[in-house]
């Protein structure tokens, strides 16, 4: 009988700091050996000339999340994790949205229910708090943290979701108390609403208006405000989906002051621009997400910040809506005003290949940076390390084998999400995942699913590496 | 018959840029001649070895302003302008407060009524908008601008006064439309309230808690936010009573970005610290004002910014409450929590001597800077130049003659306000105004009133120099 | 007999802070009266609808300065001051260059000799020290300061002129000792030489190579270095002819640190670009000056810094060489390599009209800023105030009357220098000086000389306003 | 026969990104297996509760380097590497100093000779160029790069060593051409010399004068200048031994501009201050090194920059001189003036324990940061990765086993250098290396040598990770 369940032979194993050619031995779903010539495995995979990377963790994903406008997210936990797997991911962290007036605890249970038995890869949950009642903060939050949900996201924009300043303050006091990490979507709601009205009065109601109604000033302002609250309450803060230079300036300013402020960016801010919203009059809605893509200078600022280590993680903010559907981008009103267009774009499957190609293959970041930004840092920051996020002895065998030379042109028909388009249609990439395994089992191969729904398990998370023990 | 009504002989006339020894000829209340040896005046004043400065304009003064907590301001338009005159001022700009729910137009009329027939020196009014209704912004505001009130202040803190972000946005759109200058009291209301609750829970309820509940972060945040809104709406912004380095950093950051952001500071931020609020347990309330005095490093930052031209004006934020009164600092509740202590300190009479002594006499700023910061810039920024603010042909003869060598120790008993204390008790100064005249008539002499109530007239103002014609 | 020698009636008198319509009375060469309706003058000038400004002071001018390469400056003290007068100036401060190995005292005497009996307008001298010997610094420098030359310029570039770091340090120690102001031409000599060699090796030897051999990095570096020495020695520093944003950033960084660092810019940095050096292959030499003009973004940075008060003065750096002459731009070698082209362009006559038109008429700066930047600040910074630089009682009657509506197209044939071209050929301006008087006597009218050589006197200067008494 | 030569069992293996409990299998001097339970080794080491780290690489060490003042370095390659081994290092990179007038190639050969057969641990060499002749740059440099010396250090200070600006430029052009990394000691020589003379004139000649003669301004200036040259020549630059906040500000400013500027700091800048130079009048010389230690605020700035990733490496700048010797700190003249005191302090043995204790044990940095800063980044930056610097399959078995709980008080008598003092006398630490092995062989145990001279081999290095392929 073979010593290992699986052995990956002769690949180039890459961690967030190291690169080595070796064999990887897997047993009972965990990595138990790295070596020059290790013993036999029941399954043997030849990885000669291939890269053996920690499977991607996408810590910013929206799946089957409830909405208040009648729209429906294109992906549920089944299709979303399937798409993720095919794009090189072994884990996602979708959000559990508390709707206003709803119990926080119930909302988490509902998302557990939605995920249960559906996932192709492992998953965890972040909690979104939109209704920071006494019950939610004092009673429910400690419960859900105990249940392994140790990060809380708040919104500073969106009808029915934006918290006011007092609420932000109170949520931070609560996350501080329980040792959870605070994440923030930083855009100023009131300003966007006022700008929107102004644009509507001017008849500027097409999709491009979406970008014009939320210039980077509104993101910068909210970021500064969130940093200020974090400073007052003395908590670390994670700023999600940073879109450009002015916001990066705030993040770095805070870091230089010694404040524990961290951030992520996403593929759309590296590759799309606001012009995508108006270049194709009828199709601009495909690029409507928040914050909106900016311009080339802001793309460069994001790339530069990625390379300099300003961003801790790189995520997709996958938030898919079908384009040709009245529960998607064609929802009632969307033709009249951009403000009705559901916010969000698909991306969980394309995140890693885009960063690999534009980042690693084109020489902007190193392979080790890639691993840190797409896997290891997520595991540490979201309290799953060393179980997840690395190729290390004892860690789960969550591995993506990449062919760094494989040329792929992104098109809707090669993707595996339930959305009907990709904003990256036609983009040609170098480098793609060819085998993806979760806990030692192959879940995707050559960009197609190879596992089954329900294999993916819920990962109960511990304290974030960013949150101090007090 | 004498050619001039009054001639001031042989003084050192100082403007915001120049210094010259000459005679000043006054006729019909205006300056009509400057010269080496001018003709005779009915009244002759010998100013040999004295400084002849434009009378001070105090553009941040609260007089007989309504409150919502039962407190009563110590000074009305009579005593306030009397006190101002004795401290070297020839003009004040108090605020006309619109109370929530009240008509903006009515509020202005009420303040006109309060001022009428009472003032020792000339006065104008700023409008405070707390209720930016359609009526207020669309109908009333153009009216009051036409009536010579061309500046609007908004609050980002204070119960019943703080505007939310949407309201700030709308007020700026309105001021932009009518060409009025927007002024802002920048502190984050929600944050202060949350901090206050936290301090109260911790039993930290003495006057020092006032400072601890509103650390400079809350001022910095609100300043950044106000700047951001001004950027979005494309209006100039005037940030009042800046208290320290972190806020100055925001102001300068905005200026370097090319934004039309301006600011003032006040004597309390150059000479007092938060320690004054707790050094004398029972008397800390005397120093309760907002923003609170900070620390020595922030004093230095304010001095440095004054010297470098970051601040456009220097004002008192005179807002007097009697210490030993239950309509003043001893109001119901004040013993239980700092949050009930009325915010504000007297200072209209001491502003100029403090800056003269600590600034000019001690070599931190030039005499020309002093004139710019205390008179000329006020006149320009608030739309009264060249009628007011300088010693120039054609300008009103609003003149303060200073003895730069005169030593004065500030004590309550030499002051002329209706308050029962001065926060600067015991401070020894070098330099004091000895004759103050408004439109050619002496209104104060040697620190005592020499005019009469009702002489002071309302000054209808034009467009601020900071507001572009569009 | 008329009371005044001259009266200028009904003009709009402008100072660095004020603007007033009044009459100006002049007697014995000084301004003795400003008033609404003053008495008669022997000469009466109607200035209705005209501006009455302090005559321009150009504190950065090179006239008949010795060179070491056989080139000859196009203007001597006669033609240079004639040209200056026609462009609205009433005073210039050319440099007295000490050549290496020469006595500092002698060099000053030689420049006095060159100037004596030649000047159309008043003049002072700066001393350039290129050979900071013990004799120069300890013996001669105090002498020349006593003789009214209270500013010392040093070069950080140019063969035979650049000081090394130890010499810079020692000069600053010496200027500190005698209370003189240190001025610096900040470009890194070694770097420029190395860059030049590289360009020559690459065959890039045309005039454009001049700009490419001294990118703004070499100016930024030298500026930072000079600031650092000034910090070590504890002296104020005046950085001449700043050409763009990176250098401005250093200046502002120093100011924010509380260092007494000041700077000027010049018309070429507001209106020309490096492209002017190569757009006309054979004529690029006409634009060769150091630092070279940069690009449009740097022009904007300079305009912005002017408007924000970062620059204390605005000068021409007039340094004229005849284009069509082998002692000018066609000097031996100039065809082979840019490095032989004499550095410098004419500009003393065009400085004021360019700033007036592009700055005041186009709304970038105020008229008061214009006066400060072109006259008053020069007088203060270079120790001649209040004798020079303002329209104030007792000051010399150095006055330029401008027609703010006059349209002029700059062309070589309207100018009065001895150079054979203007780099601003064809530029159309709004606003031009129509009468220029020095000490009450008209020296130029409608852009043509109206005085005579020798009328201009040497002005012995006192301590700079930037240099503290110790 | 055992499968492995050595197995380290059950330790906590730490890399720059990962932490895992596992066994390490070593064969033929290399790490060939990591696993949960690996096969037997001829030697078995139980590392339960211990940390298994990559051996430290000290890339800034001076050993037996020639001097020009008669002083003699306390450590040669034997004692220096012995001391290094006992302090947890498995490799050092001393400098090969080219003396002025000497051949670069010969100087390297001499240092090879000095090292050969002497070293306890592996070593490489950096080349110091003090005489950038055509021969040195064009002929010798490519040779020594081929010989595995791929980094070149230059001095901006020190008699006989400082390069002038033209030389710096040319060296950078040469390193660019051959793909070597440029390192710089950034202090302004002329400024220091001038400051020294001033201090001597003032009779301030004790050791404290050393710090006062080179305030951080001289380091900041030289850093800005070196950055500027690197920008002009387009090379990456490594700034050694950064001592405080003003220099860090320059480094970060450059990074934000996208320039490839990197830096290191050293223990003395985290733990000593300038006061150490004068607190013990006769012993201040023990702390004389360049740059000098600063103050507590600068220590904090260095710690903060370490934690934020501004510094790429942490080194000792070990440069030992015997205190009680006239070829050491008591050299002729040292009593008369600090300027004769040899510059440098010992530290190769204490570097790692100090950073471990003050950094890791006290919670300022993570264990992974420690590994990156002390080993992995050195290997990458100096072109030895993956042979050196990590615990990875295929890498040399250069390993330090640490007891993280071990308490050690640093005193001269426990150290193994040839110096007669340690500047850290009496400092109590938590965490110390207990077994150190180079290529699988134990070279130190419990702070005492366990290997032998001559075991250590020269490591020929490749291209730095910071230097791009062109």
Task: Give structural notes.
The structure is a homotetramer of 470-residue chains. Chain A has helices spanning 77-86, 104-115, 134-146, 165-178, 189-201, 208-213, 216-233, 245-256, 268-271, 275-279, 296-307, 351-361, 367-381; strands spanning 4-14, 19-27, 30-35, 41-46, 51-54, 56-61, 89-97, 122-123, 126-128, 151-155, 181-185, 237-239, 261-265, 313-314, 399-409, 428-438, 441-445, 448-449. By secondary structure, chain A is α/β, with parallel strands linked by helices. Chain A has a domain at 56-361: Alpha-Beta Barrel (TIM Barrel). In chain A, the strands form two sheets. In chain A, strands 1, 2, 3, 4, 5, 15, 16, 17 and 18 form a nine-stranded mixed β-sheet that branches. In chain A, strands 6, 7, 8, 9, 10, 11, 12, 13 and 14 form a nine-stranded parallel β-sheet that branches. In chain A, α4 links the parallel β10 and β11. In chain A, α3 runs parallel beside α4 (165-178), α4 (165-178) crosses α7 and α7 packs parallel to α8 (245-256). Chain A is globular, with a radius of gyration of 21 Å. Chain C binds chain D through residues 164-166, 169-170, 173, 188-191, 193-195, 198, 215, 217-218, 220-221, 224-225, 228-229, 231-232, and chain D through 164-166, 169-170, 173, 188-191, 193-195, 198, 215, 217-218, 220-221, 224-225, 228-229, 231-232.
* Largest sheet features of chain A: 9 strands, mixed
Largest interface: A-D, 33 and 33 residues
What quaternary form is this? Answer: homotetramer
Give the number of helices of chain A.
13
Strand content of chain A: 15-25%
CATH topology of the domain at 56-361 in chain A: TIM Barrel
């Amino acid at each position: 009988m073979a010593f290992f369940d699986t052995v990956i032979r002769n690949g180039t194993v890459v961690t967030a700091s190291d690169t080595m050619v070796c064999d990887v031995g897997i047993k009972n779903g965990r990595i138990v050996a790295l070596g020059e010539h290790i013993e036999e495995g029941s399954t043997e995979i030849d990885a000669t000339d291939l890269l053996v990377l920690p499977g991607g963790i996408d810590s910013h994903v929206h799946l089957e999340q409830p909405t208040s406008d009648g729209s429906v997210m294109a992906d549920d936990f089944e299709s979303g994790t399937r798409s993720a797997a095919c794009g090189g991911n072994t884990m996602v962290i979708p959000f559990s949205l508390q709707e206003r007036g709803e119990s926080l605890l119930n909302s988490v249970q509902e998302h557990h229910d939605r995920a249960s038995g559906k996932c192709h890869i492992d998953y965890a949950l972040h909690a979104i708090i939109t209704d920071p009642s006494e019950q939610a903060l004092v009673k429910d939050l400690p419960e859900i943290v105990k249940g392994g949900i140790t990060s809380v996201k708040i919104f500073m924009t969106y009808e029915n979701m934006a918290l006011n300043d007092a609420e932000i303050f109170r949520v931070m006091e609560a996350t501080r108390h329980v040792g959870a990490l605070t994440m923030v979507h930083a855009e100023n709601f009131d300003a966007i609403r006022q700008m929107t009205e102004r644009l509507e009065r001017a008849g500027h109601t097409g999709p491009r208006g979406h970008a014009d109604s939320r210039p980077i000033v509104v993101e910068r302002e909210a970021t500064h405000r969130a940093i200020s609250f974090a400073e007052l309450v003395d908590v670390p803060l994670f700023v999600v989906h940073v879109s450009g230079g002015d916001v990066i300036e705030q993040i770095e300013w805070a870091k230089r002051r010694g404040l524990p402020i961290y951030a992520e960016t996403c593929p759309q801010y590296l590759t799309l621009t606001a012009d995508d919203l108006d270049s194709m009059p009828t199709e601009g809605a495909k690029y409507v997400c928040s914050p909106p893509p900016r311009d080339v200078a802001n793309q460069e600022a994001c790339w530069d910040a990625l390379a300099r280590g300003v961003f801790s993680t790189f995520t997709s903010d996958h938030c898919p809506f079908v384009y040709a559907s009245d529960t998607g981008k064609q929802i009632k009103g969307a033709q009249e005003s951009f403000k009705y267009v559901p916010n969000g774009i698909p991306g969980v499957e394309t995140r890693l290949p885009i960063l690999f190609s534009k980042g690693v293959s084109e020489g902007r970041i190193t392979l080790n940076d890639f691993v840190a930004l797409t896997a290891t840092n997520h595991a540490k920051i979201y309290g799953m390390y060393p179980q997840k996020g690395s190729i290390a002895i004892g860690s789960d065998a969550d591995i993506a084998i990449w062919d760094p030379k494989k040329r792929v042109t992104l098109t809707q028909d090669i993707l595996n999400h339930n959305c009907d388009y990709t904003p990256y249609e036609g983009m040609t990439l170098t480098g793609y995942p060819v085998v993806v395994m979760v806990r030692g089992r192959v879940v995707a191969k050559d960009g197609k699913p190879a596992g089954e729904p329900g294999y993916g398990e819920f990962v109960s998370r511990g304290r974030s590496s960013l949150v101090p023990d007090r």
